[in-house]
Description:
Pfam families: Methyltransf_16
Number of strands: 9
Bound molecules: S-adenosylmethionine
CATH topology of the largest domain: Rossmann fold
GO molecular function: S-adenosylmethionine-dependent methyltransferase activity
Shape: elongated
Number of helices: 11
Protein name: FAM86 N-terminal domain-containing protein
Order of helices and strands: HHHHHEEHHEHEHEEHEHEE
Strand order of the largest sheet: 5-4-3-6-7-9-8
CATH class of the largest domain: Alpha Beta
Radius of gyration: 21 Å
Largest sheet: 7 strands, mixed
Mean pLDDT: 89
Keywords: Transferase
Helix content: 25-40%
Organism: Maudiozyma saulgeensis
Strand content: 15-25%
Number of domains: 2
Amino acid sequence: MNIVDQLYARRPVETLSFDSETAFETLRDQLLEIKQINAYYVKKVLKRIIDLGLYIDDTDWIYDEYVTLLNVTDKDQYSQIDSIRYFFKNKYEIDGDRIYVDIYEKPNLISASGTTGFRTWEASLFLCEYILQNEILFKDQNILELGCGTGICSILLEKMQYPQKIYVTDGDSELISNQLVRNFELNKISRDNNSNIVLQRLWWNEDKIPNDIDIVIGADITFDASLFDSLCQCLLECLTYCKICLISATIRNQDTTDSFILTTKKLGMKIEEISRTETLENTTLLAPVVIYKISK
Ligand SMILES: C[S@@+](CC[C@H](N)C(=O)[O-])C[C@H]1O[C@@H](n2cnc3c(N)ncnc32)[C@H](O)[C@@H]1O
């Protein structure tokens, strides 16, 4: 990955590898662009460049720029929304030579405003990889995403033009009307005159399930055992219309995961593990993630 892509991905500065093919002017323009939304990251990148003694012919600009950012702290950045580029591997290529999705998010955030949807969670990245490896499953299907958060899985599906129709849903209506809409725009996915992309609130076991769905997907929606009754009731209702639900779950606590499995079984659903991160080579994902296939 060249340095520009690494910067788009906001790779930790200690892991950046500066390639000789990228001209300094390109790197400079990229840093100036990022400075608009994440000055603290640019400050850290410049410090790294100085520490490594890189770009000796351009040190004036590097030092001058670094000095202007000296007062910027991580606290200034904490409340800011950044734009992160997530790259995915696939045998096909779009947007040049890589598949990627851009997401506005607050990456430092664990939970705010009662929602966990303002950052992308690893379970959704793993589900994205699964989607790309199993495109045939999603081609020309009507898909419902539950608890979409930043919407990365649905945006990837839409970018790849797999689904016929996609319902992108979350229980948080503010997230839908603000951040989710902006993320679709950021990825240049037009929803004008396109009734095939539906962004809507769907609170599990409360709001109406669309009756023309083929597949349900959900990532990191099994984090809280107190929500399992409503979530599993919702999945059961979905299965009156669709064939399967694919739920990507981060295993933070085995008891919580077991409780989710038990709740699905109690309601008469079949649950089967179909993929897990430990089986991947060179995965960049940190916590174990499992994808469950749930059916009737
Ligand atoms: C941990 S986040 C995962 C977001 C996204 N799928 C991802 O993996 O990045 C959980 C999401 O579920 C949503 N959520 C939580 N409880 C919900 C409920 N009862 N009904 C609908 N959505 C809910 C939250 O608003 C949040 O966006």
